[in-house]
Amino acid sequence: MAIKTAIVPVAGLGTRLLPITQAIPKELLPLAGKPTLQYVIEELWQAGIRRTILISSPAKSGIADYFKQGPDLERHLQETGKPELAQRLWSQSAAAAMKLETAIQTEQLGLGHAVAVGELLAQDEPVVVALGDCVIDSQGSDNVLQRMIRLFDERQADIVIAFETVSPEKVDRFGIAKPLSDDSVFELADLVEKPSLQEAPSNLAVTARYVFSPKIFSALRETPRGKGNEIQLTDAIRQMIQSGSRAFGVKLGTAERRFDIGNLESYTESFIHHALADPQLRDVVNKVCRETGSTRETH
User: Fold this and answer.
1) d(CA 90, CA 26)
2) 34 and 135 Cβ atoms separated by less than 8 Å
3) Structural domain boundaries enclosing 18
4) Is 210 helix (H, G, I), strand (E, B) or coil?
5) Are 47 and 95 in contact (CB under 8 A)?
6) Contact 115/233 with Cβ under 8 angstroms?
7) Cβ proximity of 163 and 177 under 8 Å
8) What is the pLDDT along the chain (299 residues), one digit of tens a residue?
């Protein structure tokens, strides 16, 4: 069964990026020349998704506004002899044909709650869940979501999750897989939320991309509030696995990398990476780095 719908949670307050996020939703922070969320929507489009449900908050109306078509601006740029700027607009992206809908999360009750808010619009269909503040950079024509969707269909799975290998000292920051094999695609026996290094069953960390059967919604309805008094998506996943649902993990490929804008350090790293990949910005970044290095050496 083709999966055409994605749920993208974007309601978070972005407190680790304050004071920037008082004015700009973190999902609209730029990575080189485009907002972060545009990369996510384009990744979904490449994977065959044609409908995206943004789980937003009343304070983040700017997100939906960004993706509205802007014919007046496009016409102005064309009429004033700036067609190259018009080509940069969201309306010119292939993914601009994506059907975008918004559901409002009125309370910040965790990622599980955010996904549950999308149930009514999802209409009892399997869905992709992609976090709006994480970009997966895939080189080539086959991204990790495409592989996950194929696996979901071929194995008649209920859960498929993307994982990346992290260093041992970072396992306590993520949900960590308990895999049943060392293969790049593996059956998932369990998922442990932010374990200590001693308790971690592996160093495979959840990587912001999921595929779920509609069973996820009933599991979330039955999931009590957990850590932080929030409804944790990991708790619902574990409940499904323990109830016999088939769950699989897919490792990021060697040419794939996750970029997280959740805090200032990781956002800075993500911005520089994307700037270096941009032909218009690469020389500027290298020049500043050379000058900064020379300046430090003279002090």
Assistant:
1) 18
2) no
3) 5-298
4) strand
5) no
6) yes
7) yes
8) 689 999 999 998 888 999 999 989 999 999 988 999 999 999 999 999 999 999 999 888 889 888 886 777 878 888 788 878 877 888 888 888 899 999 999 988 999 999 999 999 998 899 999 999 999 988 766 789 999 999 999 999 999 999 999 999 899 989 999 999 999 999 999 999 889 999 999 999 999 999 999 999 999 999 988 787 889 999 999 999 999 999 999 999 888 999 999 899 999 999 999 999 888 898 898 888 888 775 554 44
Residue type at 132 in one-letter notation: G
Structure tokens, 174: 């993520």
End-to-end CA separation in angstroms for the chain: 63
Per the structure, how many domains does the chain have?
1
Amino acid identity, position 175? G
**214-237 core/surface letters (b: 16 or more CB in 10 A; e: else):** ebbbebbeebeeeeeebbbbbbbb
Task: Write the CATH number for 79.
Answer: 3.90.550.10
Does the predicted TM-score (pTM) go above 0.90? yes
Sequence-distant (≥ 6) Cβ neighbours of residue 220 within 8 angstroms: 112, 113, 115, 116, 119, 231, 233, 236
Beta bridge partners of 7: 53, 129
